[in-house]
Design brief:
Length: 194
């Protein structure tokens, strides 16, 4: 907070909605299209006419859809984690908790016969997918490929065109645990004194 008071030019990076420009919007749109192509066609070509279970069964449409959606959930959540600049316990709880919730919900939804449904097409699909080694490889590979442009852009932009905030961050020494805790607590609205 003191740094912002001493150097108000740091606000220049976000002045007049600089982060909501058309160029950035088009970048995110193309990135979404790229991710959609990676999710669908990556899963399609990785598992096209391939036996993926130990008993020789092939992926069905429900398993394929579950695989693509699992890749989507993990990619979007990890993109959120990559774009998070200030981590609190709430961030950790929401980001990692949403991944745990998705896995637990998918296991429960597909692993229990629900009496209020007329038919269950998703029964045992998620567990069958997770019991397959190639499905795990596909999830890891496709999530990595879809996160690669984000990581490369972040690294290249920080090296070649750093913002004023990033320049200050590289000049300042890292805060120790005690200093960062005091800084975080000083940002709360409570009456905490030391």
């Amino acid at each position: 907070m003191e740094m912002l008071k001493r150097d108000p030019t740091l606000y220049r990076d976000i002045a007049k909605n600089a982060l909501l420009r058309w160029r950035l919007f088009i970048y995110w749109t193309f990135l979404g299209l790229f991710d959609a192509v990676v999710f669908f066609f990556g899963a399609y070509f990785l598992f096209d006419n391939a036996t993926v279970t130990s008993n020789g069964q092939m992926l069905g449409n429900w398993t394929f859809g579950t695989l693509v959606f699992t890749i989507l959930v993990f990619t979007v959540t990890l993109k959120l984690a990559l774009d998070t600049q200030y981590w609190t316990w709430i961030n950790h709880f929401v980001i990692w908790g949403s991944l745990v919730f998705y896995i637990v919900f998918s296991l429960l939804w597909g692993g229990i016969v629900w009496p209020f449904l007329n038919y269950q097409r998703m029964y045992y699909v998620f567990m069958q997918m997770l019991s397959s080694g190639p499905a795990w490889l596909g999830i890891i590979l496709l999530v990595t490929v879809s996160l690669l442009p984000d990581v490369l852009k972040k690294v290249i932009c920080r090296l070649l065109w750093p913002t004023a905030t990033e320049k200050i961050q590289t000049k300042q020494p890292c805060l120790s645990v005690e200093q960062s805790t005091i800084f975080m607590l000083s940002q709360t609205t409570g009456n905490i004194t030391f």
